[in-house]
Amino acid sequence: MMKEETYRIVIVGESGVGKSSIMSTFVHHKFPEAFISTIGIDYSGKKLITKFNGNIYQITLKIFDTAGQKRFQNITEYYQTTTLDGLVVVFDITNMDSFIRAEELIERSREISALGSQLPILLVGNKIDLAHERCISPKRVQELVTKYNLGDYIEISAKTNENHCEEVFSKISQLTFDSRLFEIHVMDEAETPSETTSTYIQRGWYSFQDFLNNILFCYCK
């Protein structure tokens, strides 16, 4: 029997870094040539099929693309506090301001999310097709990843490589999937760990590589 999971993924980043392009290319297999700034929130959904430890999972992604302008901050933060399982933070490798903004968004998201420091976060550097204009070194990015103990970091081009966009959502799904397996219920100190808790831990050891190796995409909304 296929098991089902639903993950609510929020995409944040400065205006113009390519958040909408990443979502559109992943969901609709089409890169939007014209830039249209998101107003408030845009939503799309897609399903992934993955095989884990002999079990088939259907993962429904509910993807919320947020506006980058600070005037919409109250709206975007609402979705981060109420509908968030995983966060994708996007910056433009040719724009230092967008990188600085990415760090601000990481800090703020951990402050307001109920998951706090346990929030699965994927950092994405977009526009590597413009590598000749790059102004943010890989070393500086790695320092940010280490500082905040982020789940992962990838560099992509939403414009020139559709597979890059698929990788974004497979990785954030993987991070969210893995974090749920390690969820342990709060227990009194004298309480013996339950069988359920032990199962979560045991399954967690195998989740990371299995998920990455076995993820299959079902291209449907």
Structural write-up:
This protein is an alpha/beta fold and 221 residues long. The chain has one domain (3-217): Rossmann fold (3-Layer(aba) Sandwich), CATH 3.40.50. Helices cover 39% and strands 25% of the residues. The protein has 6 helices and 7 strands. A 7-stranded mixed beta sheet has the order 6-5-4-1-3-2-7. Helix 5 (162-181) packs antiparallel against helix 6.
Task: Annotate the secondary structure layout.
Layout (H helix, E strand, L loop, with lengths): L2 E11 L5 H10 L12 E12 L2 E12 L6 H10 L3 E7 L3 H17 L8 E6 L11 H10 L4 E4 L6 H20 L13 H20 E3 L4
Parallel strand pairs: 1-3, 1-4, 4-5, 5-6
Antiparallel strand pairs: 2-3, 2-7
Helix pairs in contact: 1-5, 5-6
* Helix coverage percent: 25-40%
Strand runs, count: 7
Whole-number average pLDDT?
76
- The residue ranges in which pLDDT falls below 50 over 5 or more consecutive positions are 184-213, 215-221
Measured distance between first and last alpha carbons: 21 Å
Structural category: alpha/beta
How would you sum up this structure in a few lines?
The chain is an alpha/beta fold. Helices cover 39% and strands 25% of the residues.
